[in-house]
Amino acid sequence: MQNSFLMRTPSTLIFLALLAVFTIIVTALSEGLGLGLVSTSLVKTLGKTLCLGLVALSMDLVWGYAGILSLGHFAFFGMGGYMIGMWLMYERTRDIVVHSLADAPIPSTAQEISDAIGNQIFGVVGSAEFPLIWAFADSLFLQLLLVVLVPGVLALVFGWLAFRSRVAGVYLSILTQAMTLALSLYLFQNDSGLRGNNGLSGLQNLPGFSDVPQSLVSLWFLWGSALALGLGYLVAAWVVSGKFGSVLRGIRDNEARVRFLGYSVENYKLVLFTGTACMAGIAGALYYPQAGIINPAEIAPIASIYLAVWVAIGGRGRLYGAVIGAAFVSLLSSWFTGGRAPDIVLGSFALKWVDWWLIALGLSFVLVTLYAPKGIGGLFDLISNRTSPNRHGADLGPDAGALREQEANE
Amino acid sequence: MSTLLEVSGVSVSFDGFRAINNLSFQITKTEMRAIIGPNGAGKTTFMDIVTGKTKPDEGYILWGDKNISLLGMSEARIAREGIGRKFQKPTVFEDQTVQENLLMSLKNPRGPFRVLFYKPRPSDLERVEALAVEIGLSGELQRKSGELSHGQKQWLEIGMLLAQEPRLLLVDEPAAGMTPAEREHTTSILVEAAKTRAVVVVEHDMEFVRRLGCKVTVLHEGSVLAEGSLDHVTANQDVIDVYLGR
Ligand SMILES: Nc1ncnc2c1ncn2[C@@H]1O[C@H](COP(=O)(O)OP(=O)(O)OP(=O)(O)O)[C@@H](O)[C@H]1O
Ligand SMILES: [Mg+2]
Fold first, then answer.
1. What ipTM goes with this model?
2. A111, A133, A280, B111 - which has most CB atoms within 10 Å?
3. Any idea where the domains of chain B sit in the sequence?
């Protein structure tokens, strides 16, 4: 069954093969295990890019396939990051604290150790108490579970409320923006329990592996991210290839018709919204250890809008399009905003990319939406010569006596 | 003959305008019924009410052997109860193949998780094949339905209806935009379908209605003006005044 599914979607095989080749090449050129041509920070950037590809996949499923323009999926991504960040920060701080207390003349009690960790972590927000939400922070297993559960439950509750009252279209997009805004504003507060605007930091250090160099850790994460993206792609391709995918595309194109076929559109949206939120959470959990820090600004409303822009530029409604869009735009974006792109001097006026990149991005988004709705992914159609039906303007009936389209629509 | 659907005293207003006014309607289990009436008579609105799209202000709708009420059920639930609907304007999923359209419509579990793990059984594919033959699209199964002609889309939508195996078929202007030959084929599909279930056809074209050879209900301003054989209703002076004599 798996075989026949892969055979039916050759693009999946090609994608997985390219992903594997990419990972091997980067490894072979890395500082950690290879020739040293690719710096550790570049390995991290590439690893993070793979995670962005994964969250773009989830966005493509909800938006490109089911037509739900969620502008809040980055909140789920951020939640995943926070959940793994809690464990990373707790364990690492504990290591340090236990280490330093080991020299003390009297062995310290568990309470003293816990207090010291709390002091270390929450000192910046003027507190030393562990908030309730840190209850499981000492368990990697539970925090990993929360990486999926927290975004999942958040999406389930939000989606249940929104879809049940049939909020759709622009209103849903606005509502999702409100959700991610509310969440980030809440996290900005010092008493939110997640260190306010300081966020969680030092996430690049793996507890228990303090003597492993970052050049190696970065590769581990690159592999993990590649694996997650590959599996995510496989799952997504499988989901959209069958009848479930048919129903999703039906919902996108004509929701009412799907209802009259007997499908509960709301349930499908809810399952998809929740599932993709979990996927986004996993992507975030792999991303932030490579970024090293997460703070509430990460889930500001604009982040989710970027996500939509990536998918639009890459080509929504096709999975590789989303990944390409995310990789292409985010890499280009960090190149331009990193100050590495040469300024363009026009007489007395110098065009600084750091300032102008966002405008260029916005402009290309508008242009793609207007003139190339298939995005970068559409270029592949030119190769494979795939054509979508030309639905308009043609004679409707086989005979001359048949009505033309306009009349029929009346 | 037992009643399949009973609509009784139903009214609905849009912003004070009474689109359906104290309408009552019954249909038995294997019956073909044509509904005719001038533009804006409320024919489409009547279907909207039965299929749960529009909630009536008053009246009740009873369904099936157990006389359960359809009011308050979602559109999807009503469809699963066995009421299939074809829209006035053909609505098929244009981006998907004829086969995908039909597979989606086949009477199979509709829940998200069941659908996720669904694999077409050989019997499903055979059924799709048979349906395609019936609606004259057997050569087009792998084509995107958006590429079909208008008449073919109308048939595909009828095929999707039949695939659902509904007990009641509501068909809104199935012959609109069809050539005479296509109309004839459509008639035979509907007549065949009505042998095993109830079929309600809304149509303007009198010739088409005559060929259906069934009882006719005339709607006017949201209520029933006349009911009976085509000859009977076309002889009715009220019907001539509001509809035929235009
Ligand atoms: N959602 C709505 N909001 C407001 N008015 C509506 C709505 N739906 C229908 N109407 C009005 O109700 C009346 C009945 O409309 P309906 O579409 O049922 O007529 P019809 O008999 O199907 O006509 P036609 O033969 O043109 O298809 C019309 O005057 C229409 O404008
Ligand atoms: Mg109508």
1. 0.91
2. A280
3. 3-244
What B118-121 contacts at long range (C-beta under 8 Å, 24+ apart), as own/partner pairs, is B118/A242, B118/A243, B118/A244, B119/A1, B119/A242, B120/A243
CA dist., res. A204 & res. A214, Å (int): 8
Q: Which residues of A touch B178 (CB under 8 A)?
A: 397, 402
Number of domains in chain A: 1
Ligand 1 centroid to residue A67 C-alpha, Å: 28
A244 and B116 in contact by Cβ < 8 A? yes
A372 part of a folded domain: no
Q: How many residues would you count in chain A? A: 410
Sign for the CA dihedral angle at A184, A190, A193, A199 comes to positive
B39 lines ligand 1 (CB under 6 A): yes
The whole-angstrom separation of Cα B77 and Cα B82 is 9
Q: Per-residue pLDDT for A388 more than 60?
A: no
Asked, for residue A273, whether it belongs to a domain, the answer is yes
- Is the model's pLDDT at A94 over the cut of 70? yes
SS3 A276: helix
Assess B80–A contact: CB distance below 8 Å, yes or no: yes
Residue B158 has pLDDT above 60, yes or no: yes
What 8-state DSSP symbol labels residue A366? H
Instruction: Provide CB contacts within 8 A for B91, sequence distance 6+.
Output: A254, A257, B157
Q: Do A259 and B76 touch (CB under 8 A)?
A: yes
Nearest residue to B125 via CA among B146, B103, B98: B103
List the one residue out of A75, A53, A64, A66 whose CA is nearest residue A305.
Answer: A75
Average pLDDT over residues A66-75: 96
**Nearest chain A CA: its distance from B29 CA (Å):** 20
Whether chain B has a CB inside 8 Å of the CB on A347: the answer is: no
Tens-digit pLDDT profile for residues A232-277: 999 999 999 999 999 999 999 999 999 999 999 999 999 999 999 9
Asked if residue B153 has its Cβ within 6 Å of ligand 1, the reply is no
Give residue-wise pLDDT tens across range A120-129. 999 888 888 8
Please indicate whether residue B40, judged by its CB atom, sits closer than 6 Å to ligand 1.
Answer: yes
Q: Whose CA is nearest to atom 6 of ligand 1?
A: B14
Whether B44 lines ligand 1, by a CB cut-off of 6 Å, is yes
- Quick one: how far is CA A327 from the chain centroid? 11
Largest CA distance in chain B: 58
* pTM of the complete model: 0.91
Q: Do the Cβ atoms of A388 and B95 come within 8 Å?
A: yes
For residue A381, the tally of other CB atoms under 10 A from its CB is: 14
H/E stretch holding A197 reads none
CB within 8 Å of chain A, chain B residues 187-216: none
**For the CA of B48, the nearest atom of ligand 1:** 18
Minimum-distance CB partner of A250 among B74, B104, B164: B104
> B30 CB contacts (<8 Å, ≥6 apart)?
B194, B195, B196, B197, B198
Kindly compute the dihedral angle of the four CA atoms of residues A163, A164, A168, A171, in this order, to the nearest 10 degrees: -100
Chosen from A261, A266, A409, A410 to mutate, greatest number of chain B CBs within 10 A:
A261
Kindly give the number of the ligand 1 atom that is closest to the alpha carbon of B54. Answer: 1
Q: What architecture does CATH give domain B3-244?
A: 3-Layer(aba) Sandwich (3.40)
The Cα A355–Cα B56 span in angstroms is 58
Residue A126 sits in which domain range? 2-353
Rounded to whole angstroms, what are the CA distances from A186 to A70, A192, A265?
A: 20, 6, 32
